[in-house]
Specification:
UCP016666; single chain; 2 domains; mainly beta; Quinoprotein_ADH-like_sf; Jelly Rolls; five-stranded antiparallel sheet; 2 helices; four-stranded antiparallel sheet; WD40/YVTN_repeat-like_dom_sf; Methylamine Dehydrogenase, Chain H
């Protein structure tokens, strides 16, 4: 593959912290991605290396900033449809603020046959501090030859919209905020809920043939323990089921098959470690996605949002991991830094876009993107190889404080491919630890559990007698200790 650039250091692009490389899509011999916050859409002819860069000035005047931070892209026939949001022009204030009068939500279309770009649709409320819902996902509806766009991040015009891909006419189908969706059989499933207040609240389903909507609850946890704040990233489809990847786990199922949605705890650390601002792709009949260590964060500890938000968004329990889902197996296939922003497959290779820096908050803007972003090229056979050595470390005060919210079960660590996994517990007093063992079998079965006496000081628990996925719960709160889980 011929590319001029694989690495992108900080450059002009007023916004909050760092954007990233989003929307990676290989289609009809062209590789597309958007570089945010620079607001640059790149189109590369992978045979010749010829590259076209578009600055979104069909929306307004330069200098532009923004682009896409949720991977809103779809390919149909010879066209690549790419969406998101853009400041055109960008207006930065010295008091670390961005003005939003010129912020537009958008969908563009790139014709791979004649190398042309057209603005298909745009929307703005031209407000100083608020904005119209960003385009965070684009699905093609083959039954009605239209685009379905999801909009959750914003203050107005949220929900699911149907967009005519020829005329650009948009029609609101529902007004509940929705970040992501996926198509299963003849139904489009969408997550409903606001990620910065509650997370995923329910799943709505649109019958693409009859046009009817249905609503479904999220369901109980396979390990039998409560879960909280399932902020969600991508939805994906495989096995005639919908998979919603959320903070702390995966919600999978299909009520139209007579199977309720179930919650499978996965990478629950009671931090903002989550599959957020990343996509999921189908690979080898399964699903490949990432859980990110540092995608969104409060930068200043004295920020108005409070100390708890600073702690939960800046505690780094482990590396970002690339995860392959092939039920009942969940397998870690890659370990990366702060976050993975986009994933695509091309010619037997995996393109993995990464970033060193998260998005930050509303009073923490800079006139330039603050992250170092790059594209890593891997062989897709990594899903068949041994997993990388990975470790996770967590202050036990976080799951202990979660008990006040009715939760507290942590972990959800996939053991597939590891021969010598172990847990090291450092405790300030004697306690009892329950280990829940389960897998991502479909339909979801129940976990089995085993309880161990653990002592004050250092405890080592070998996990090689367990299989599948394991989560943990201490009987009594532990505010001073920590846990380290080592996979090798």
């Amino acid at each position: 593959m011929l590319m001029r650039d694989y690495r992108f250091p900080p450059r002009y692009g007023p916004e909050w912290g760092s954007g990233g490389i989003f929307g990676l899509r290989y289609h009809n011999g062209v590789l597309y991605y958007t570089l945010a916050f620079e607001a640059e859409a790149h189109f590369i002819d992978v045979k010749t290396g010829d590259e076209k860069v578009y600055d979104f000035t069909l929306l307004g005047d330069a200098p532009t900033s923004g682009g896409d931070t949720y991977n809103a892209v779809e390919a149909v026939d010879e066209f690549i449809y790419f969406g998101g949001w853009v400041h055109a022009p960008a207006v930065y204030r010295e008091e670390r603020r961005i003005l939003f009068h010129n912020k537009y939500s958008h969908v563009h279309v790139y014709d791979t046959e004649n190398d042309s770009i057209r603005l298909l649709w745009k929307d703005s409320i031209h407000h100083e501090t608020d904005w119209a819902g960003e385009v965070s996902d684009i699905l093609y509806d083959p039954a009605n030859d239209r685009l379905l766009i999801a909009r959750e991040d914003g203050h107005a015009n949220l929900g699911i919209y149907a967009l005519d891909r020829r005329t650009g006419k948009a029609e609101a189908l529902i007004h509940e905020p929705s970040l992501k969706g996926t198509i299963v059989h003849d139904t489009a499933f969408f997550g409903i809920g606001n990620n910065f207040t509650e997370g995923l609240r329910e799943i709505r389903a649109l019958d693409l043939i009859g046009g009817r909507w249905s609503a479904f609850k999220l369901g109980e946890s396979v390990d039998g323990r409560p879960y909280i704040r399932p902020e969600y990233g991508p939805l994906a489809s495989a096995y005639n089921r919908a998979f919603a990847f959320v903070r702390g786990g995966v919600i999978a199922g299909n009520p139209f098959m007579g199977e309720d949605f179930r919650f499978f705890r996965l990478f629950e650390f009671y931090t903002f470690y989550a599959p957020f601002r990343v996509n999921a792709i189908n690979l080898g009949g399964g699903i490949l996605t990432a859980y990110n260590a540092h995608h969104d964060a409060v930068y200043r500890r004295d920020s108005h949002v409070g100390d708890m938000e600073w702690t939960s968004t800046n505690t780094i329990p482990g590396p970002s991991v690339l995860v392959y889902i092939a039920p009942p197996m969940v397998k870690i296939v890659g370990a990366f830094g702060a976050r993975v922003t986009s994933i695509e497959k091309m010619d037997g290779k995996l393109l993995v876009a990464t970033n060193t820096t998260p998005n930050t908050g509303s009073t923490e803007a800079t006139p330039f993107d603050t992250g170092n972003r790059d594209i890593v090229v891997l062989d897709e056979k990594i899903v068949q190889e041994n997993p990388p050595a990975v470790s996770f470390s967590l202050p036990l005060a976080l799951p202990s404080m979660a008990k006040n919210l009715g939760a507290g079960t942590f972990g959800g660590i996939p053991l597939d491919g590891y021969r010598e996994p172990r847990m090291v517990l450092y405790l300030s007093g004697d306690n009892r630890l329950t280990v829940y063992e389960y897998d991502l079998s479909l339909p979801g079965g129940e976990a089995v559990s085993e309880t161990f006496e653990v002592k004050r000081g250092k405890n080592i628990l070998d996990l090689d007698s367990f299989s599948g996925i394991v989560s943990f719960e201490l009987e009594r709160p532990e505010m001073k200790g920590k846990v380290r889980i080592e996979l090798r």
